[in-house]
From TrEMBL:
Protein name: ABC transporter ATP-binding protein
Superkingdom per UniProt: Archaea
Gene Ontology biological process terms from the UniProt entry: peptide transport; transmembrane transport
UniProt GO molecular function: ATP binding; ATP hydrolysis activity
Organism: Halosimplex pelagicum
Region (Disordered): 1-22, 330-380
Record-linked Pfam families: ABC_tran, oligo_HPY
Domain ABC transporter: from-to ranges: 27-283
Length: 380
């Protein structure tokens, strides 16, 4: 990325920090609870799966947010909610100041154009019976019906060159099965870019690629960001990918746990100065990302009280991480901490951030006995 772009993004985050810039998209107290539909589940009266639970997040112009967290923590559901593919069961999605789910349907479909997705499996997202040209022509025909075939052709060729598929006329006639995984992902990205999106949700979009191709693809995402002025919500279960993308773009990393966004901040804040006990556990399990933490915790058991992951249909009371948190005290089982923000924009949902909180007077939670089930957990 050019230095000037980095500077301008820094300026943007500064403006955001000073409260001058309006967010492009504002997620407010988002809840997505999936009712379990099976007969057995209804008979047993099982609760809804709390895929996302009271998450608020602002996304700015040309922003990059990398969401990380273990499988099932709600990354995809939150990402889809941000781009209007998932209607939340609670809270609001405001896009350019308008409530996405309150605008009339035609207006909403215009907003959808500005909110695009690229998936992990590009082959599944591309029609096997369509050439690259036909795949890319389709959105142009839909959104620019006045564009003539000549102009369409030249836009498609220009785009293919931008996503590194040259000679464009050669790639344009190929079918998805005649492309490598990386090339398929480039076509999927190109199709999203033709919509001139404001936000692209890249959902594990590089996970299926070889390591070297992953870097190439992430570099391409950022290079094209300058060209189309888009923001990215980048989902990855791999913290190394999240770090690469967020570091190069001066973006943020958001850490999710059990439907909650427990910590969000710059790459340095999350990797060098993690505050939430869950973020520390994540770093413990990827020592290469923070050798200091790795050195301190070498030969130690994982920094969790117990390894069983709570069931999102029956989450623990209080803080979602309290059943595993090595720092948990009794108050953590009673109250759910809000995210608090430091002056430099590092947000953490943990009572330990608040020097005057009752937490500090609260007795430690009793250790669960071996084999003892803690409320709200599934025994693996
Ligand atoms: N349509 C659905 N109906 C019922 N439950 C769902 C649905 N979609 C997701 N879930 C559940 O919601 C929770 C969060 O899922 P989600 O896919 O958002 O997590 P994730 O962090 O993206 O996980 P992964 O990395 O495995 O995709 C999981 O328990 C999942 O089983």
């Amino acid at each position: 990325m050019s230095e000037s772009t980095t500077e301008s993004r820094n300026d943007e985050s500064d403006r955001a920090a000073e409260g001058e810039e309006e967010p492009l998209l504002s997620l407010k107290n988002i809840e997505v609870h999936f009712k379990q539909g099976g007969l057995l589940q209804r008979v047993l009266g099982e609760e809804a799966v709390r895929a996302v639970d009271d998450v608020s997040l602002d996304i700015y112009e040309n922003d990059v947010i990398a969401l990380v967290g273990e499988s099932g923590c709600g990354k995809t559901t939150l990402g889809k909610t941000a781009i209007g593919l998932q209607r939340p069961t609670g809270g609001t999605v405001e896009f350019r100041g308008e409530d996405f789910w309150e605008v009339p349907e035609e207006e909403r479909s215009e907003l959808r154009r500005a909110l695009q997705i690229i998936h992990q499996d590009p082959a599944g997202a591309l029609n096997p019976n369509r050439t690259v040209r036909s795949t890319l022509a389709e959105p142009l025909k839909r959104w620019n019906p006045d564009m003539g075939p000549g102009e369409r052709e030249s836009q498609i060729n220009e785009l293919l060159e931008r996503v590194g598929m040259t000679p464009a006329h050669d790639y344009a006639t190929r079918y998805p099965h005649q492309l490598s995984g990386g090339e398929q992902q480039r076509v999927a990205l190109g199709r999203a870019l033709l919509m001139e999106p404001d936000i692209i949700l890249a959902d594990e979009a590089v996970s299926a690629l070889d390591v070297s191709l992953r870097i190439e693809m992430m570099d391409l995402l950022l290079e094209l960001q300058d060209f189309v002025d888009t923001s990215y919500v980048f989902i990855s279960h791999d913290l190394a990918n999240a770090r690469y993308l967020a570091e190069k773009s001066d973006g943020r990393i958001g850490v999710m746990y059990l439907g909650n966004l427990v910590e969000i901040g710059s790459v340095d804040q999350i990797l060098k100065n993690p505050q939430h006990p869950y973020t520390k556990v994540m770093l413990w399990s990827t020592p290469v990302l923070n050798p200091d933490i790795a050195e301190k915790t070498a030969n130690q058991a994982p920094p969790v009280r117990q390894i069983d992951v709570p069931d999102p249909a029956d989450p623990p009371s209080g803080c979602p991480f309290q059943t595993r948190c090595p720092e948990a005290r009794e108050v953590c089982a009673q109250q759910d901490p809000d995210r608090t923000e430091t002056e430099d924009g590092h947000e953490v949902a943990c009572f330990r951030q608040e020097p005057d909180h009752d937490y500090w007077q609260s007795p430690p939670l009793e250790e669960p006995q071996p084999g003892e089930a803690v409320e709200g957990t599934t025994q693996n």
